């Protein structure tokens, strides 16, 4: 029997805690059903890959998880609270997103890192900025103009800018698809290090089988907006 959609989930054991309890999540735009009745629990501290063919609804699903797009059906319980009751701007700081292309604001790396906290009236200290840049392996980049960065450097700054908001969940929408293999592996190691050191839950949309195998113990497979299968990454990828 499916759970009552108006009842918050209860975690009996912290090891089994669910960060994102997705219930019947759907999004329809005109006559197109982009995401179709997806129900899944995303565990606290896990790295979950989301795969499937082009047009399967992977990115649309990801954007619903922090209300960058609004669902037309269903909801998400974030840490046992219905996310419809959380201010969207606050939600997007707690559930951060890194996109396929790094969209940085004109100016310096520091000004980009300061943006999110600044929206809450906070100022990042010089030490905190240095720490963030150290975590993404860009020491000394504080005053670099973002227009001078390589693709890999820009993606690292995008990641650091998201981390400046101290997210509890990190959504990654094919963050390495435009990067070369060496830079891709470096970004993967950064994300896995953040997950390991901070316990940040990560949901990774990827079309790269090898990347899913390297990063995610569990994989969700989508087709035509629907969740087709979820389980151990090797088993899911072998079956699809």
Automatic annotation (TrEMBL):
Xref: PROSITE patterns: ABC_TRANSPORTER_1, ABC_TRANSPORTER_2
Keyword field contains ATP-binding: yes
Record-linked CDD domains: ABC_PstB_phosphate_transporter
GO biological process: phosphate ion transmembrane transport
Organism superkingdom: Bacteria
Pfam family, one: ABC_tran
Positions of the ABC transporter domain: 20-239
Annotated keywords: ATP-binding, Nucleotide-binding, Phosphate transport, Transport
PANTHER family: ABC TRANSPORTER I FAMILY MEMBER 17
Protein name: Arginine transport ATP-binding protein ArtM
